[in-house]
């Protein structure tokens, strides 16, 4: 991979969960790959009053399990040499002095401000950076999701950040867009002619997008209480995946060409009426059960969760896209915590053959489907039927492996690695534009409002199951079922 330009990355929230699990490991991997120039610097900032040495020790101990076999002491030393630590309260203007002195006056040097803190601080940090004169022409800001908790709050944050950074400098991250199979789906759709004629209502019966996690809220109960699965996952990750599946071919891969097409999809989503919310959404909350053979507590027993909480840890939605291409094709989205396995996949179910010349037995086999899997493995498979060798004309399900992992032996980048490098290089294609984000909030808001106004509780599901029974019923009403393919 090509070397990056010299950069300074200021990591606000440098001691936090995201920084330790994803951001610092991603930067380490790039140092290991030799793409980070010698003079580049990582300036971590957080409240904890740590010395540089104490921060580096904390970072090494905490990041190491996330690096696995890729950890080695020499590379870590080379990585650590680029890191400094700034104990500061981001709300106090005076504390930006030391940061400014360290950054110095380098108008042409790439400067990335990564806001890995609560979004409540994004406006304040932007104001202080602006007042301290630290935002240069070559500066970028990366903001984490979810941005706000509804349309109004997201607008306020976007306005505040936008007072100091131009839209071309704002990188709204959605790490699902950085996953390799998602990129591969773009390549499959827009680099080949084969699928395009079939990528429409005449050939596609339904689309299913699942992001299931075995994890619970992992000590982030406080954060999750104000968020829930709809805001944490569906408003951003699942809707972005839906856009990648449903968008029209863009005229080029330029950031705005791609984002214009995604925006059109979001604006074409059939809005929810209160009656629709009852009929087309399911919310659930896990109760105690077992995941991977180990007993786990229910959501309300987790630290930081209010007794009687109505926060959803599972959501399933039937989305409809009101365009000529997709009219009548249901897009089913589901995501949940404490599911039986970690699974993230997009399933395109093509229609069955119009007339079964090999007998009814071939109907209903799980053929004619494309499965793009992001987790646990990264793969892309086209499921078909083929004749079983032998006398009889017996058909058997087979699949074509389309991920070419045999052809391409290069190391696969973690989503955050790719996106951080893109932010440093100034490539916006895989980042979300403000109007997309607002369209996504606009679409989910009636669901949030309807749930908030309702006396109903989320439906309980046992930890280690695939969510409440109502989730299966959502599909069975259309004569369909969630994919259970391996
Ligand atoms: P954490 O609560 O783990 O970390 C928050 C960070 O902010 C800590 O480093 C904390 O420093 C710092 N901080 C808090 N208050 C201040 C302050 N007044 N001044 C300076 N620093 C402060 O949060 P996460 O890392 O989990 O999340 C960060 C962001 O990323 C959030 O916007 C979240 O929604 C988003 N996100 C997180 C994901 C994850 O997997 N964790 C996934 C996707 C998005 P300290 O406590 O040391 O003082
Ligand atoms: C984050 C959510 O955006 O995505 C977390 O805030 C979730 O709650 C995580 O666990 C899942 O990401 P991945 O890449 O592990 O599927």
From TrEMBL:
Record keyword Metal-binding present: no
Domain Glucose-6-phosphate dehydrogenase C-terminal: residue ranges: 186-483
Enzyme Commission (EC) number: 1.1.1.49
Active-site residues annotated for this sequence: 237
Top EC category: oxidoreductase
Reaction equations catalysed: D-glucose 6-phosphate + NADP(+) = 6-phospho-D-glucono-1,5-lactone + NADPH + H(+)
Domain Glucose-6-phosphate dehydrogenase NAD-binding: 10-184
UniProt binding sites for NADP(+): 47, 89-90, 145
Alphabetically ordered keywords of this record: Carbohydrate metabolism, Glucose metabolism, NADP, Oxidoreductase
Domain of life, per lineage: Bacteria
Binding-site list for substrate: 175, 179, 213, 232, 337, 342
UniProt KW Phosphoprotein keyword: no
Annotated pathway: Carbohydrate degradation; pentose phosphate pathway; D-ribulose 5-phosphate from D-glucose 6-phosphate (oxidative stage): step 1/3
Family per record: Belongs to the glucose-6-phosphate dehydrogenase family.
NCBIfam families in alphabetical order: PRK12853.1-3 (NF009492), zwf (TIGR00871)
Role summary: Catalyzes the oxidation of glucose 6-phosphate to 6-phosphogluconolactone.
Name of this chain's protein: Glucose-6-phosphate 1-dehydrogenase
């Amino acid at each position: 991979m090509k070397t990056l330009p010299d950069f300074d990355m200021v990591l606000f929230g440098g001691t936090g969960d995201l920084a330790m699990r994803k951001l610092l490991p991603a930067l380490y991997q790039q140092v290991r790959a030799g793409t980070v120039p010698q003079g580049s610097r990582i300036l971590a900032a957080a409240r904890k009053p740590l010395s540089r040495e104490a921060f580096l020790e904390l970072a090494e101990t905490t990041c190491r399990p996330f690096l696995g076999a890729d950890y080695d002491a020499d590379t870590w030393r080379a990585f650590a040499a680029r890191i400094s630590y700034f104990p500061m309260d981001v709300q106090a203007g005076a504390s930006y002095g030391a940061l400014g002195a360290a950054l110095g006056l380098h108008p042409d040097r790439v400067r990335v401000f990564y806001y890995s803190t609560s979004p409540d601080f994004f406006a304040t940090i932007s104001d202080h950076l602006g007042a301290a004169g630290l935002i240069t022409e070559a500066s970028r800001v990366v903001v984490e999701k979810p941005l706000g908790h509804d349309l109004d709050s997201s607008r306020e944050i976007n306005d505040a950040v936008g007072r100091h950074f131009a839209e071309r400098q704002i990188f709204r991250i959605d790490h699902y867009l950085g996953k390799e199979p998602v990129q591969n789906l773009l390549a499959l759709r827009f680099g080949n002619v084969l699928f395009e004629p079939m990528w429409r209502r005449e050939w596609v019966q339904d689309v299913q997008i699942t992001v299931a996690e075995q994890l619970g809220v992992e000590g982030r109960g406080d954060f999750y209480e104000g968020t829930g699965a709809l805001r944490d996952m569906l408003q951003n990750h699942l809707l972005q995946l839906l856009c990648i599946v449903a968008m029209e071919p863009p005229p080029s891969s330029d950031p705005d060409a791609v984002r214009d097409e995604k925006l059109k999809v979001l604006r074409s989503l059939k809005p929810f009426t209160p009656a629709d919310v009852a009929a087309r959404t399911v919310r659930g909350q896990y109760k105690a059960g077992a995941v991977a053979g180990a007993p786990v507590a229910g959501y309300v027993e987790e630290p930081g969760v209010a007794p009687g909480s109505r926060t959803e840890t599972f959501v399933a939605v039937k989305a409809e896209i009101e365009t000529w291409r997709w009219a009548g094709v249901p897009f089913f989205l589901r995501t949940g915590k404490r599911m039986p396995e970690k699974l993230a996949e997009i399933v395109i179910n093509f229609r069955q053959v119009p007339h079964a010349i090999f007998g009814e037995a071939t109907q209903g086999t799980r053929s004619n489907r494309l499965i793009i899997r992001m987790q646990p493995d990264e793969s892309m498979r086209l499921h078909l039927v083929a004749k079983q060798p032998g006398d009889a004309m017996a058909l058997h399900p087979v699949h074509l492996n389309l991920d070419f992992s045999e052809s391409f032996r290069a190391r696969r980048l973690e989503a955050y690695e790719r996106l951080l490098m893109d932010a440093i290089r100034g490539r916006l294609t895989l980042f979300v534009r403000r109007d997309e984000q607002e369209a996504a909030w606009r679409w989910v808001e009636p669901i949030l409002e309807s749930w908030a106004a309702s006396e109903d509780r989320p439906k309980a599901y046992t930890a280690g199951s695939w969510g409440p029974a109502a989730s299966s019923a959502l599909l069975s009403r259309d004569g369909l079922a969630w994919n259970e393919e391996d």
